[in-house]
Amino acid sequence: MQGETYGPVAEALRSGDLDAAGLDMPHRLLLDFVETVTRHAYRVTDEQVQGLRDAGWTDEQIAEAAYDFGIEPPAVYEPNGIPPAAAP
Q1: In whole angstroms, what is the distance from residue 59 CA to residue 81 CA?
Q2: pLDDT tens digits for 31-58?
Q3: Distance of alpha carbon 21 from alpha carbon 19, whole angstroms
Q4: What is the reported pTM?
Q5: I need a surface site. Which of 59, 61, 85, 86 has the fewest CB within 10 A?
Q6: Please, which residues have CB within 8 angstroms of residue 37's CB and are 6 or more apart in sequence?
Q7: For residue 1, what pLDDT is reported?
Q8: What are phi and psi of 62, to 5 degrees?
């Protein structure tokens, strides 16, 4: 998400403000899931995963989201360190 069109969305995501990002429901559910995995993996429920399936995500996509959460952006994108959304 780069450029003028996505700048506000990218900034909202970096800040952890999913409401301001204006995401559609499937993407919002996926990012809520990623937050749960990142902060409290033991709280992921079968119902949460089924909700992702019901929203159209495949098991492969759900697994990829669960495994990709630890990637940090290059310093050029976050010159001050970790984005607020990823801060402890």
Answers
A1: 32
A2: 999 989 888 888 999 999 999 999 999 9
A3: 5
A4: 0.70
A5: 59
A6: 44, 65, 66, 69
A7: 47
A8: -65, -45
Amino acid identity at 27: H
The size of the chain, in residues, is: 88
- Which residues, including other chains, have CB under 8 Å from residue 21's CB and lie 6 or more apart? 9, 12, 13
Name, in order, each residue with C-beta under 8 angstroms of 8's C-beta and a sequence gap of 6 or more. 20
**Around Cβ 2, how many Cβ atoms within 10 Å?**
8
DSSP class per residue in 1-45: --STTTHHHHHHHHHT-HHHHT--HHHHHHHHHHHHHHHHGGG--
- Which structure tokens are listed for 42? 């033991």
Q: Residue with structure tokens 């399936």?
A: 53
Tens digits of residue pLDDT in 72-82: 556 666 666 66
Supply the pLDDT for residue 45: 95
